[in-house]
Amino acid sequence: AQTVTQSQPEMSVQEAETVTLSCTYDTSESDYYLFWYKQPPSRQMILVIRQEAYKQQNATENRFSVNFQKAAKSFSLKISDSQLGDAAMYFCAYRTALSGNTPLVFGKGTRLSVIA
Amino acid sequence: GAGVSQSPSNKVTEKGKDVELRCDPISGHTALYWYRQSLGQGLEFLIYFQGNSAPDKSGLPSDRFSAERTGGSVSTLTIQRTQQEDSAVYLCASSLFDPGMDTQYFGPGTRLTVL
């Protein structure tokens, strides 16, 4: 079974600075998807960014980018120019690409605080 | 368009009572998922529906948990004889049946508290 590990329960960053959240995963599959979701206090999970394992190019969405290291099974999220609204729980998630829609496997999350 | 909605937003119940949690997926989404988020834990998969196929129940923690999806749309998660360890946030998500683009969209969840 696949597992996802987020080794940083909590992180903090100064407003306008850059922060990197770590995620590692364990799988024997070669084709899969990786996601970062944000969960603010409202509880609504919001997709931040996704990466297809077969793509070597790292995904980027505005201030959010990933460092995908397939051989190392690492998928870190970099947030540039941090804003107060970035404060939330961040979850890394894995989904197999082998058989259509499948449930996500989540890490335990990293709570990000943004200091004004 | 409207997102995934869940009701109630919060539910407090007494140990031993049954509860029903409702999920309204995004219109046109054929896949629907239930997850549980316990305090300090990540999200744990419970059950998955895809169209008219038999649901994937592999994540249900006990036979006290069940779910149904009527007409391929609204889903109800039922917990019988609730226990204190059932206290958690229950999240529902839906997606299109498109393996390459099946981003899961989440509802705001139901916070269940079992006293």
Morphology of chain A: globular
Helix content, binned percent of chain B:
under 10%
Approximately how much helix is present in the residues of chain A? under 10%
Average pLDDT of chain B, rounded to a whole number, is 91
Distance between the termini of chain A: 41 Å
Low-confidence stretches of chain B: none
Q: Note the total helix count of chain B.
A: 0
Calculate Rg of chain B over CA atoms: 14 Å
Tally the helices of chain A: what do you get? Answer: 0
Order of helices and strands of chain A: EEEEEEEEEEEE
Question: What is the 3D shape of chain B?
Answer: globular
Tell me about this structure.
The complex is a heterodimer of chains A (116) and B (115). Chain A has 116 residues and is an all-beta fold. In chain A, 0% of the residues lie in helices and 52% in strands. Chain A is built from no helices and twelve strands. In chain A, the strands form three sheets. In chain A, strands 2, 5, 6, 10, 11 and 12 form a six-stranded mixed sheet that branches. The model of chain A has no long low-confidence stretch (mean pLDDT 93). By secondary structure, chain B is an all-beta fold. Chain B has no helices and ten strands. In chain B, the strands form two sheets. In chain B, strands 2, 4, 5, 8, 9 and 10 form a six-stranded mixed sheet that branches. Chain B is globular, with a radius of gyration of 14 Å. The termini of chain B are far apart. At the A-B interface, β6 and β11 of A face β4, β5, β8 and β9 of B.
